[in-house]
Amino acid sequence: MNISQIERKARDVCRRRHLSLATERTYLHWIRRFAGWCRQRSDDSREARIVSFLTYLASQRHVSASTQSVALNAINFLYKDVLQLELEDFSSFVRSKKPKRLPTVLSREETLAVINQLRGMKWIIASIMYGSGLRQREVLNLRVQDIDFNRLTITVRSGKGAKDRVVMLPTFLVKPIDTHIEEVRRLHNADLTAGFGDAYMPHALARKYPSAVKEFGWQFLFPASRISEDPRERSEQRRHHIHQSAVSKAITAARRAAGIDKRVTAHTFRHCFATHLLEAGADIRTVQELLGHANLETTMIYTHVTSTGAISTQSPIDFPPNVTPIRVAS
Predict the structure, then answer these.
(1) What is the DSSP letter of 100?
(2) Looking at residue 330, what is its pLDDT?
(3) Active site includes 79?
(4) CA 189, CA 215: separation in Å to the nearest integer?
(5) Domain that holds residue 200
(6) Which of 49, 122, 130, 135 is labelled catalytic?
(7) Residues 76 and 162 in one domain
(8) Residues 256 and 289 in one domain
(9) Do 44 and 112 belong together in one domain?
(10) How confident is the model at residue 237, as a pLDDT?
(11) Burial of 303 (C-beta count, 10 Å sphere; 0-12/13-18/19+)
(12) Between the CA of residue 84 and those of 54, 78, 206, what are the distances in Å?
């Protein structure tokens, strides 16, 4: 089986397992890189090639632990799911060191200063990331029907780990989102008039509900500015959601305009959501559920950056001159 055949089979397996398009592209990227490595080491065993490749990534390319982990997952996927071959132990590879980094968190004033530099659709996207704690990809994948104004909720479909969850819809965003949805409706009607208007339906739902592809509820809440080729089905022309790079560039420009010198990305708003909730006294398990974390330990990292923990303790250099914080027993 040559590399083209392997790629086609890998793509088929990804879609059969309902993996995201981003995961599919990432796996194919690492499969191609690993295949090139194997061509130079045709005499080695499968396990020896894996060990040498992963060690090379850590010791010579100096990739992060998460990047090496993604490469390992792609290789496991290649052998077990695509080629259906059993592997012997290959755990002797050199592992990249995983640094313990704390997330960058803005104050509430800084967060709003950045958001208020944005306009239109991008303002709403950033506001949802901060107001509801969604990941950037989760916001962009929202459909019109995922917004429930009566219950003030947003339903996140197939979030990280293929899990659905429900988060709050801030009352502050009800009117802006309602107005935005009417603009999306006008755009969808124009697409229908022009002979388009089909929405991408996940997991073969288009075959199960053929008429649903043109329904307004299935349209992306944040549509792209133009109709383009579907990334999965090249023969189809659809209006996808706005590209994440457009949002990222807008956030970078907003951060500069707001005069914020900290590094701010789309994910920073999610960090701020969790940290500010904890500072306001929210229960950590509630925050865990809202963020969609499988493990509480993942959520616990935000306790290290709140202003209600150890860092709220006053430094001794700031004690007033007439205050003796510790009395020595006589």
Answers:
(1) -
(2) 44
(3) no
(4) 10
(5) 100-330
(6) 135
(7) no
(8) yes
(9) no
(10) 85
(11) middle
(12) 21, 8, 30
Identify the DSSP state of 233.
-
Within 8 A by CB and 6+ apart from 43, the residues are none
Task: Clarify whether residues 25 and 124 are in a common domain.
Answer: no
Q: How many domains does the chain have?
A: 2
Which residue numbers in the chain have pLDDT < 70?
161, 203-204, 206, 234-235, 307-319, 321-330
The single residue of 122, 180, 188, 270 carrying the catalytic annotation is 270
Q: Which of 15, 33, 95, 160 is catalytic?
A: 160
pTM: 0.79
Same domain, 264 and 163: yes
Q: What is the DSSP letter of 220?
A: B
At residue 50, the pLDDT reads 94
In the residue annotation, 302 being an active-site residue is answered as: yes
Q: Rounded to an integer, what distance in angstroms lies between the CA atom of residue 11 and that of residue 229?
A: 18
Whether 160 is catalytic is yes
Q: Is residue 95 part of a domain?
A: no
* CATH number assigned to the domain comprising residue 9: 1.10.150.130
Domain presence at residue 88: no
Largest CA distance in the chain: 89
Tell me which of 180, 241, 276, 293 is the catalytic residue. Answer: 293
Q: Per the domain annotation, does 94 fall within a domain?
A: no
293 counts as catalytic: yes
Given the residues 27, 130, 200, 302, the one annotated as active site: 302
Task: Say what the pLDDT of residue 245 is.
Answer: 94
Is there a contact between 111 and 140 (Cβ–Cβ < 8 Å)?
Answer: no
Residue 99, φ and ψ in degrees, nearest 5: -75, 150
Query: Domain check: are 107 and 72 in the same one?
Result: no
Query: In the annotation, is 267 catalytic?
Result: yes
pLDDT, one tens digit per residue, over 55-94 is: 999 999 999 998 999 999 999 999 999 999 999 999 999 9
pLDDT reported for residue 284:
92
223: closest CA among 250, 252, 198, 243? 243
Per-residue pLDDT at 44: 82
| 134 & 54 share domain | no
Same domain, 169 and 288: yes
Predicted local distance difference test score (pLDDT) of residue 162: 72
What is the number of helices (H) and of strands (E) in the chain? 13, 5
